[in-house]
Amino acid sequence: MSEIAVVAISVAKPGYEERLREALEGIVGPTRKEQGALQYDLHRDMQEPRRFVFFERWTSQEALAAHAKSAHITAYKQAVADWVEHAEIRVVSKIL
């Protein structure tokens, strides 16, 4: 399968912005070391600071699936469950 991209959005509940930011920053390093990770960049929405956005690129769907099952992502999801108001993950393929 060809390279895929992901846009992952997490919106913090009011008052949890900095906790969520720290937790998200904590998964960047381990994820960038994963096999198949080509890009894993964290951004914060300038208009809505509770919204965090990852732009990701993976070598394959299999690499992304392994990432989703990794220990650091599993621990992250458990840690932030009460801090996140909304989360959305979009897997996309490049057209041009």
Flag low-confidence runs: none
Structural class: alpha+beta
Q: What is the molecular shape? A: globular
In CATH, the architecture is: 2-Layer Sandwich
CATH class category label: Alpha Beta
Largest sheet report: 4 strands, antiparallel
Assembly context of the chains: single chain
Order of strands, widest sheet: 2-3-1-4
Provide the domain count.
1
Summarize the amount of helix as a percent range.
Answer: 25-40%
Number of strands: 4
The CATH topology annotation reads as Alpha-Beta Plaits
Pfam families: ABM
Domain ABM: 4-93
Keywords: Monooxygenase, Oxidoreductase
GO molecular function: monooxygenase activity
Secondary structure: elements and pairs:
Blueprint: E1 4-12, H1 17-32, E2 37-44, E3 51-58, H2 61-68, H3 71-80, E4 84-92
Antiparallel strand pairs: 1-3, 1-4, 2-3
Helix pairs in contact: 1-3
3D structure, described in words:
With 96 residues, the protein is of the alpha+beta class. It is built from 3 helices and 4 strands. The longest helix is centred in the N-terminal third of the chain and has 16 residues, at 17-32. The protein is globular. GO terms for molecular function: monooxygenase activity. Keywords: Monooxygenase, Oxidoreductase. This is Antibiotic biosynthesis monooxygenase.
